[in-house]
């Protein structure tokens, strides 16, 4: 009889033992996939929140702007500029911003803050700025009013309809001064964003800073985050050396560092899980070998070569690993699909902490390809590694002692 056929029949001579071993592998695949999916889903949501709140996935600047943050480091996007960006594969939307610092004043209250000139329609598609308007109305194209972050409005005792004086240094040292009415108050879920400053229509901001049609940055959104660096390179080639192209993690490295540190901690946790899983599978293999020790000795005694026995045991282990991985994949996939659509809400005690930093208080999951394949291959490698035990056992057991035991 063929070795692989014999191995398959051997598995089902003791169905209970085989099912226990397969169940251990299924549990290993499911547990590791669940943990990795939750981890990557959380990171993806964190990145999505970061880019959708403000930065976008990619930004284009004047080469010296990011270091200086000066209103003098601006550029005028020509008629072909946005066309080149929007025609780049993977780009879904691009829109301009004009940002600089200004002095806000009303009555006896003064405060330094950012003035951010935006395209109200395109900005709202990405940052959903209109949903954070707590009082008043969102900006319309051409409006001469301001949206003021909540903490600044509170510190300066501002309400909708009040007028605020803005003073700043404009393009090439020009003096910028103007009166702006308060059109809306913004209440972001993030304390940091509630201190950011004020928003104005980009045309009015250009008039205030005397920059005309020039802007400080172009914000770009992409469809596939995994192709981000490739998209950045494509945009850089199209625009040339007159512009600086930066991804969100280059602009906000502290968030990426936090993710990398968390990943490093997760590696330790996964290692512990894999060790526990490995010993669980090894335990069932030891049990199997203990039950079959005398049987294997008899097979050797009647003339079967140990090499063929080892080969048969290898196929048995292979089948167990394959069955466990396939069943684990079939079990975990629909559950992960459901969890991606229905994130797990966090308890109130933890929800407050998440919402304080502007994150949704839920556990998110990912269906990214490596989430499944990395765990499947790891568990499969553990299963095959466990085969070393029956290999050594068959190679070293003493025939006479085993038969008498």
Architecture overview:
α2 runs antiparallel to α13 (369-386) and α10 (253-301) packs parallel to α14. The protein is built from 15 helices and twelve strands. It starts with a helix and ends with a helix. The longest helix is centred in the C-terminal third of the chain and has 49 residues, at 253-301. It is an alpha+beta fold. Helices cover 56% and strands 19% of the residues. It has helices at residues 3-11, 15-55, 65-68, 81-86, 120-127, 150-155, 202-209, 228-239, 248-251, 253-301, 306-341, 348-356, 369-386, 388-396, 399-404, and strands at residues 58-61, 91-106, 109-118, 133-136, 146-149, 163-169, 175-186, 197-201, 217-222, 244-247, 344-345, 362-363. The protein has two domains: 3-51 and 255-404, no CATH class; 63-242, no CATH class.
Quick rundown:
The protein has 405 residues and is an alpha+beta fold. The chain has 15 helices and twelve strands. The model has no long low-confidence stretch (mean pLDDT 84).
Cα-atom radius of gyration: 31 Å
Spatial strand order of the main sheet? 2-3-8-5-7-6
Helix/strand/pairing category: alpha+beta
The fraction of residues assigned to DSSP E strands is 15-25%
**Number of helices, counting only DSSP H or I runs of 4 residues or more:** 15
User: What's the rounded overall pLDDT mean?
Assistant: 84
**What helical percentage do the residues reach?**
55-70%
Shape category: elongated
Low-pLDDT regions: none
* Overall number of structural domains: 2
Tell me the major beta sheet: 6 strands, mixed, barrel
**CA-to-CA gap between the ends?**
29 Å
> Care to count the β-strands?
12
Counting copies of identical and different chains, the oligomeric state is single chain
Pattern of helices and strands: HHEHHEEHEEHEEEHEHEHHHEHEHHH
């Amino acid at each position: 009889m063929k070795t692989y056929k014999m191995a398959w029949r051997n598995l089902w001579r003791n169905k209970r033992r085989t099912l226990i071993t397969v169940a251990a592998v299924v549990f290993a695949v499911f547990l590791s996939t669940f943990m990795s999916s939750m981890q990557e889903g959380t990171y993806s949501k964190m990145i999505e929140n970061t880019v959708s709140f403000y930065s976008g996935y990619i930004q284009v600047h004047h080469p010296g702007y990011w270091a200086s943050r000066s209103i003098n480091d601006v550029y005028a996007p020509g008629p072909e500029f946005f066309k080149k960006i929007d025609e780049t594969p993977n780009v879904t939307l691009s829109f301009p911003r004009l940002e600089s610092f200004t002095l806000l004043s009303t009555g006896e209250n003064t405060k330094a803050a950012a003035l951010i000139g935006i395209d109200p329609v395109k900005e709202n598609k990405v940052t959903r700025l209109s949903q954070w308007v707590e009082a008043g109305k969102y900006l319309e194209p051409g409006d001469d009013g301001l949206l003021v972050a909540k903490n600044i409005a509170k510190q300066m005792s501002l309400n909708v309809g009040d007028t605020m004086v803005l003073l700043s240094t404009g393009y090439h040292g020009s003096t910028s001064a103007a009166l702006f009415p308060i059109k809306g108050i913004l209440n972001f879920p993030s304390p940091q964003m509630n201190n950011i400053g004020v928003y104005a229509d980009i045309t009015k901001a250009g008039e205030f800073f005397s920059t005309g049609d020039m802007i400080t940055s172009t914000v770009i959104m992409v469809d596939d985050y995994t192709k981000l660096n490739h998209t950045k390179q494509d945009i850089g080639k199209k625009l040339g050396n007159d512009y600086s192209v930066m991804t969100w993690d280059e602009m906000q490295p502290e968030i990426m560092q936090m993710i990398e540190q968390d990943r490093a901690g997760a590696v330790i946790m996964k290692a512990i899980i894999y060790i526990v899983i490995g010993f669980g599978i090894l335990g069932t293999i030891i049990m199997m070998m203990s039950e079959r020790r005398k049987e294997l000795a008899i097979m050797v005694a009647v003339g079967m070569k140990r090499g063929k026995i080892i080969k048969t045991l290898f196929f048995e282990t292979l089948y167990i690993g394959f069955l466990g991985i396939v069943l684990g994949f079939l079990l975990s996939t629909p559950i992960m699909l459901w969890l991606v659509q229905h994130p797990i809400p966090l308890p109130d005690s933890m929800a407050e902490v998440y919402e304080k930093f502007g994150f949704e208080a839920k556990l998110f999951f990912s269906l990214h390809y490596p989430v499944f394949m990395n765990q499947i291959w790891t568990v499969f490698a553990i299963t095959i590694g466990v085969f070393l035990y029956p290999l050594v056992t068959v190679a070293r057991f003493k025939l006479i002692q085993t038969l008498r035991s």
